[in-house]
Amino acid sequence: MPLEVDWRGVYPAVPSQFQEDLSLDIDATKSHIEMLLDNGIHGLVMLGTIGENTSLDLDEKVQVLRAAVEVAGGKVPVLTGAAEFTTRGACNTVAAAAEAGVDGIMLLPALSYNADPRETITHFRTVANSTHLPIMCYNNPPVYRVDITPEMFTELVDIDNIVCIKEASGDIRRITELFNALGDRFLIFAGLDDVALESIMLGCTGWVSGLVDAFPRENRMLWDAATSGDYARALEIYRWYMPMLRFDSHPKLVQYIKLTVQELGFGSERTRPPRLPLVGEERERVLAIVRDSVATRPTESAPATI
Q: Mapping DSSP to helix (H, G, I), strand (E, B) and coil, where does residue 212 land?
């Protein structure tokens, strides 16, 4: 019998904050989480791509997760990314995360090696069997070079604690293909900001979002409008939001989104190398998009004009 979870709504992929010497800034990370909770987000995804998972060692990951669990205080689910180079490494990370008190795992294929379908299925099956925690499988073939297809997910339906799919292929047709192949066996979450509205309209019950880290109010307005059927209002907000939502599908999404977070006063843009701060024309272009969006941000009561 599949595990039942109450995962629904907008889950920010929370950045990990760093001090000037690039050591962890746990206090700043906790402060950001508190702001997100105050603005009505529905869950947390720690140590995803934006959380710079692969830039932290295991001890640091545990520190971040304990802080998130403490701040969340059981009010919302806390998930963590598990992005490792080997299946054994993923199992070790999941075990440490469980001890830190998280509520679930966002599991990626093994990094670096482009596994074939048999190897990918074995990776997910092995990690899932190593833990009691519920698992969200993260499919992002443009970045991780491994596509977890609907046909592959049909081979995982017997794993009770695989409960959710984060779909980030960028092919919006995949949402319908997943539902057609799997029915309601798995929750389906939108995994890319710039196809979020389409994904929600096609039946996704959750959204792992990056830009919510800087714009939680507007993100919640979009979610509420879309899930209540007020598509005219949702489309109005979505069109305003789209220039920034595009950041999420850029190779420098971490720098783009952390710079946006800093511009809104919610954290620092600092990243660990090899990621470096944006400079020159690229930096000014991103800031111009953000500042224009701030100047034209929608209001709570603005009527739809679509």
A: helix
Note if the pTM is more than 0.90: yes
Q: Which residue is catalytic, options 11, 61, 144, 166?
A: 166
* Percent of the chain clearing pLDDT 90 (strictly above): 95
Q: What pLDDT does 301 receive?
A: 62
What domains lie within the chain, and their CATH numbers?
9-295 (3.20.20.70)
75 catalytic, yes or no?
A: no
DSSP-derived 3-state class of residue 120: helix
- Let me know if 241 is a catalytic residue: no
Contact in structure between 55 and 272 (CB atoms under 8 Å): yes
Closest C-alpha among 52, 11, 22 to residue 254 = 52
Among the options 11, 61, 138, 238, which is catalytic? 138
Task: Note the Cα 52 to chain centre separation in Å.
Answer: 12
Round to whole Å and give the CA distance between 296 and 290.
Answer: 10
How far apart are alpha carbons 183 and 59 in whole angstroms? 39
